[in-house]
Amino acid sequence: MPLVRFRVPAGYLAVYLGAAGLQRLALADDTALAYFWPASGLAALWMLSGRTRTQGLWNGSGIVVGGALLDLLLGLDVVPALLFGLANLTVGLTVRWVWALLEVQPLWGPLTRRLASTRDLRHLGFAAAAAGMTGAAPGLLGVLAESGSLTGAEATLWVVRGACSTFLVVAAVLGLLTTVLRSHAKRGLGAILTPSPRRFWALELVALVSVSLTAAIVIFGSDGALPIAFLMIVASTWVGSRFTPAVGGIYAIVLSSLAAVCTQVGLGPFGPIDDHTTRAIIIQVYALMTAIIVLMLSLGASERAALLARALESEANATSRADLLDAVTSVMVDGLVVIGADNEVLLSNPAAEEMAGVGPAHTQVGSARAHGMTQTDGRGPSPRRTCLARGPCGASTWRRWTSCASTPRPASSASSP
After folding, report:
1. What pTM did the predictor assign?
2. Which of the 8 DSSP states describes residue 346?
3. Distance between CA atoms of 122 and 116, rounded to whole angstroms?
4. For residue 128, which of 97, 109, 146, 167 is within the disulfide window of CB 3.0 to 4.6 Å?
5. Using one digit for the tens of pLDDT, what is the confidence trace for 233-270?
6. Is the four-CA dihedral 234, 235, 240, 242 of positive or negative sign?
7. What angle, 0 to 180 degrees and rounded to 10, lies between the N-to-C axes of helices 10-25 and 53-73?
8. Tens digits of per-residue pLDDT, 224-234?
9. Is 397 helix (H, G, I), strand (E, B) or coil?
10. How far is CA 396 from the centre of its chain?
11. Would you list the DSSP string of 229-289?
12. What is the spatial distance between Cα 205 and Cα 194, in angstroms, rounded to a whole number?
């Protein structure tokens, strides 16, 4: 019988346990209420990483058992600890199922984990919303087993917090990883931090960090009750429109964590709210809106930069091919004329112009008759008939065109024998 090895990735387990312990240690003093729940987002990332059903089983076991053991060490009872671990597992499974459904991929197989477009962001939003609702069921049972009571506000908080925390963590991590992996072939740090190369981006980033941190500390670190949290929209717009999702994700995580901690201790514009549950819901929604604004703008800027780069590359290729065609036709001894369906000359080379006795300026607006192009009966070229004859040019008579098509064509071309 082959030996069964323990396949829980140590890195995921360590980060997951660290996040779970941090959120437990940061509970409000007078309530068992967490203002943020990063473990749910890390559980979702952990479940998304599985490539087979067996890996999914081991990852799910690590989420439940690891989280439960940590909660037991922090003084929680067995039943609530298991239920809270099961809540994180439910979040991870739901995100994986919805993600696979929207991406039209098998549930147990390698998933395409990326955040490269606004479409990916919408899919993640649907997955996080579903995970917030499904993960709330075992979580609320854990609250009921721990405290013996449950209110409607607490149920709402579990749904909102689960959805917001999952979206924020997964979006930030996937945005960072996607940007780094897609920019690995480009030189310099600027390809990771900025959607398009520009001068002085490093100085702009330093200014952005300074302004954002200062504004966040002033707004959320003050014990005044001034409702000026909306001022951070300016910094969020600056980040999203000028930098990549890697910067936007880090910005959203840092700002949300700072705002949650300050709000929890009663500081900032949301600190004066007396009810802890209402305060926690509001700060979660604020963090979610900030992340959506930043990531939508940064993904849009990255998409526009990629489209512009492809357009410039296509233009350069088209110009190169046109120059090559001009170089080839200009040295041809045979005359070449391309005629469109409206009998206008689309292309002619110097040899054909010399034969027809016309110049380049005339051929740009001239018709086929200007080149002496006629049908066999002497009439002008017809779009329905592409069998053309060479009419008289001076004292000489041109022979009939040898190429003939039975079906109409948008353009005709020929060369002198």
Report:
1. 0.76
2. E
3. 11
4. 167
5. 899 999 999 999 999 999 999 999 888 888 888 888 88
6. positive
7. 30
8. 667 788 888 89
9. strand
10. 67
11. GGGHHHHHHHHHHHS-HHHHHHHHHHHHHHHHHHHHTT-STTTT-S-HHHHHHHHHHHHHH
12. 9
